[in-house]
Specification:
This protein is an alpha/beta fold. It folds into two domains: 25-77 and 355-467, Alpha-Beta Complex (Aspartate Aminotransferase, domain 1), CATH 3.90.1150; 86-351, 3-Layer(aba) Sandwich (Aspartate Aminotransferase, domain 2), CATH 3.40.640.10. The chain has 15 helices and 17 strands. The strands form four sheets. It has a seven-stranded mixed sheet. The chain has a four-stranded mixed sheet with strand order 1-2-3-15. The chain has a four-stranded antiparallel sheet with strand order 13-14-17-16, with helices on one face. Strand 10, helix 11 and strand 11 form a beta-alpha-beta unit. Helix 4 (86-98) runs antiparallel to helix 12, helix 5 packs parallel to helix 12 and helix 9 (210-226) runs parallel beside helix 10 (254-266). The two termini are 15 Å apart. It binds 4'-deoxy-4'-aminopyridoxal-5'-phosphate. 4'-deoxy-4'-aminopyridoxal-5'-phosphate binds at residues 76, 139-141, 144, 167-169, 241, 245-246, 274, 276-277, 302.
Length: 474
């Protein structure tokens, strides 16, 4: 049977086809066994994907067992050009051959100068004109720390406004702004963050979805900030994602983002947009803020800006630059190879119009997945922006909530993820309940690869839903 949305399912779909040449890696099982014995129990992706990658090109990853996978995780949204793209490799090789220092703290280099020019060249006008950049330790979380600290210094206030479902990183300040209770629980309470309702249409915090729910979220925010007894510590900043990634691929309506900009501007609260995952074309625009046209006070960048190597920075309006020398240091702020790889990536994405392509392909993929909803009741919601796509899986036998959303189905989602892996597709989960399949393919994905991803995903979904149907179910 061919399902709507799985139109090419009955064509031959080589799942996890064996590699033509055996990879020169050790025995996969032995390596995995040693990893389990020696690495921490906090490891994550390694649990979901028990493979030992030995080679990767584009969106194909080859394991030590000779199997090949289409990678829709892309280094947690990092690899906008896929693995080992020729322009990235060329940039790295050229830099290596030039004899440039690979590690140089925060000294000026031609590579950093070039990177900054390329980055500023992509930022929205009105922001780039008055932008300053601070290079951080090479992780998104450190750039979030820097952004919060910058605004705390500039405003002399301590509080932070952050949203339900947010993910900003794992270091203390970023973790305080993150929503997930499970990862925060072991730490002492961070009392300075006020949690605001993110406009999550499918599971709306106000019991009404869509634009109305987003309006209510904005009204609530405004009322709370103006309530002298609302318990809000005077905020140094509001931090948000234009599309929540780890929170389950939840795009905020553009109107809501404009409301957040208005509300913060009217109250002198700096607005930080965390573009760590949404940046560099991923959402169908070079930067996700472009969809709504808002001009934030700071943008946090990492992941794709390093062209697959570690790099992170905060870019902000120059009038917030009240830091003393050394206010936010870090040894590894001068990764020359990452700057060169990042410059090549930024220029390639812009020159090839890959953000537009992400918009077109994203619409095609979501339309195909949307068609699945009518035939597969476990598909509760399909959403996203550009090539940042989420499929929320639900329990069709459960009772709907006030918005009509069915209970999340994390176990089913984990089985679908495993089913995808068996079929040669790497897809990770996210969302409040770990029930959202997240697709983050490279922006260079070909039309044929789009079809293969959809075939494998549909096949895994259909088979898993069929196997979990209640006894006697239709
Ligand atoms: N912000 C967002 C929006 C992210 O998605 C992430 C990582 N998933 C981070 C911050 C933290 O980045 P890192 O893991 O590099 O610290």
């Amino acid at each position: 049977m061919t399902l709507a949305g799985c139109s090419t399912l009955d064509q031959a779909t080589p799942a996890a086809s064996p590699a033509t040449t055996p990879p020169p890696a050790g025995d996969q099982d032995a390596i995995l066994q040693r990893q389990r014995a020696r690495e921490s129990s906090a490891r994550t992706y390694a649990r979901s994907f028990p493979i030992v990658p030995v080679r990767a090109h584009g969106m194909t990853v080859e394991g030590a067992d000779g199997r090949r996978y289409l990678d829709c995780l892309s280094g947690a949204g990092t690899l906008v050009l896929g693995h080992n793209h020729p322009v990235v490799l060329d940039a790295i090789r050229r830099t290596l051959d030039s004899g440039a220092p690979l590690h140089i703290l925060d000294l000026a280099t031609a590579e950093k100068d070039d990177f900054t020019t390329a980055l500023f060249g992509t930022l929205p006008a009105g922001f780039a004109d008055r932008a300053r950049i601070h290079f951080c330790g090479p992780a998104g979380t450190d750039a979030v720390e820097a952004a919060l600290k910058l605004m705390q210094t500039a405003t002399g206030r301590r509080g932070v406004l952050a949203f339900t479902g947010a993910y900003h990183g794992m270091t203390a300040g970023a973790l305080a702004a993150t929503g997930s209770v499970a990862v925060k629980q072991p730490l002492p309470p961070a009392g300075e963050v006020t949690r605001l309702p993110y406009p999550y249409g499918y599971r709306c915090p106000f019991g009404v979805g869509g634009e109305r729910g987003a309006e209510l979220s904005a009204v609530y925010t405004e009322r709370l900030l103006d309530d002298p007894s609302g318990g809000v510590v005077p905020p140094a900043a509001m931090i948000l994602e234009a599309v929540q990634g780890e929170g389950g691929v939840v795009p905020a309506p553009d109107g809501w983002l404009r409301e957040m900009r208005r509300i913060t501007a009217e109250r002198g609260i700096p607005l930080i947009v965390d573009e760590v995952q949404t940046g560099v074309g991923r959402t169908g625009a070079m930067w996700a803020v472009e969809h709504s046209g808002i001009v934030p006070d700071a943008i946090v960048v990492s992941k794709a800006i390093g062209g697959s190597l570690p790099l992170a920075a905060v870019v902000y309006r120059d009038d917030y630059d009240g830091w003393l020398p050394g206010a936010h240091t870090g040894t590894f702020r001068g990764n020359t190879l990452a700057m060169a790889a990042g410059t090549a990536t930024l220029r390639f994405v812009a020159a090839e119009g890959l953000a537009d392509r992400a918009a077109v392909l994203g619409a095609r993929i979501t339309a195909r997945l949307e068609a699945l909803r009518s035939v597969l009741p476990v598909v509760g919601d399909v959403r996203g922006r550009g090539l940042m796509i989420g499929v929320e899986l639900v329990d069709p036998t459960g009772a709907p909530d006030a918005c009509g959303a069915l209970p999340p189905a994390p176990d089913l989602a984990a089985r679908v993820r495993a089913g995808c892996l068996e079929r040669g597709l790497i897809v990770e989960l996210g969302g409040r309940h770990d029930a959202v399949l997240r697709l983050l393919p490279p922006l260079t994905i070909s039309d044929e690869q789009v079809e293969a991803v959809l075939d494998r995903l549909c096949d895994a979904l259909t088979a898993t839903a069929r196997d979990t149907r209640p006894e006697g179910g239709a």
